[in-house]
C-alpha cells in the first residue's frame, strides 16, 4: 500500500487516469482512496473518496465512476496535470473465478469487475445491468473482451429489458461474484443460495479513512462487526446475514 500524490493524465465525465509513481500493483476488486484537496488548503471535500481500480492502461491507473455528488464531479472535471492524494491499493479484492462462474455488476459496481472479467478463464459468464445503456460503465471495454457477456437495462436501451439478475442462473458448485446496488446483491445472494452456489459481494459503503481507523464503514456480519475497507469490500454474502432474502 502506498500514500502518494497522483497526477491527472486525463479525465472525462465517467473516468479518470492517473500517473501513480511507485504503484505496487493490485488484485481485481481492490480500491484506492482519492483525495481531491491533497494540500488540504480548502478542505473541500474534506474526505477522500473510495474508487475501485478499473484497470492499468498505458502505465496509468484508470478509475471509472458515476457522478453522484461533489467529489465525483470534481474528479470528472480534474484538469490534466492536477494532483490528487492517493492511498492504495486497499481491501481484499476478489479471488479468481473459475469456468462456469458468474460476474454480476450493476451501476457503479461494474467498475470493480472489469479486471476480473479481463483475466477470467473461458466459460466465465459476465452479466451487467443499469437503468440505461449510458449507466453501464465501460460497456465497450467489456464487449471487446469477447467472452460470454449479456446486458440488461431497465429501459431496454441495451440488451434485455429488466434487471440484470434475471440473466443469472447459477448452479450448484458455481460462484456468483456481485457488485452493485444492495437490492441486486441480495437477489444474487438469494439465487445462489437457492441453487447451492456460492456468492461473493463487494460492498460500496461510504468511507472516511479507508484503512480501518474511523470505524465509519462497519457492517454487521454473522461474526460481529467488520469493516468494509479492511475486511472487505468483498464478503461471502452468507456472512452478511441476508438469509434467503
Ligand atoms: C470500495 C468502494 C469502491 C467504489 N468504487 C466505485 C467506482 O469504481 N466507481 C464509482 O462510480 N463509485 C464507486 N464507489 C462509490 C463512490 O465512492 C461514491 O459514489 C463517491 O464516494 C461519492 O462521492 P461524491 O462526493 O461524488 O458524492 P457525495 O456528495 O459524497 O454523495 C452524493 C450523494 O450520493 C450518496 N452516496 C455517496 N456515496 C454513496 C455510495 N457509496 N452508495 C450510495 N449512495 C452514495 C450520498 O448519500 C449523497 O446523497 C465505490 C465505493 C466503495 C466503498
Ligand atoms: S473507512 Fe474508516 S474504518 Fe473503514
Report the structural category.
alpha/beta
Question: Distance N terminus to C terminus?
Answer: 36 Å
Low-pLDDT windows of residues: none
Largest sheet: 7 strands, antiparallel
Q: How large is the count of helical segments?
A: 4
Broad shape: globular
Query: What is the strand arrangement across the widest sheet?
Result: 4-3-7-1-2-6-5
Q: What is the helical fraction, as a range of percent?
A: 10-25%
SSE string: EEEEEEHEEHEHEEEHEEEE
Indicate the proportion of strand residues.
25-35%
Overall pLDDT level = 96
Radius of gyration: 17 Å
3D structure, described in words:
By secondary structure, the protein is an alpha/beta fold. It is 14% helix and 33% strand. It has helices at residues 70-77, 114-119, 139-145, 182-195, and strands at residues 2-12, 15-19, 31-35, 49-52, 55-57, 60-64, 83-90, 102-106, 125-130, 148-153, 160-161, 175-179, 198-202, 218-221, 224-227, 234-236. It is globular. The termini are far apart. FE2/S2 (inorganic) cluster (FES) is lined by residues 207-210, 212-217, 227, 229. FE2/S2 (inorganic) cluster is lined by residues 207-210, 212-217, 227, 229.
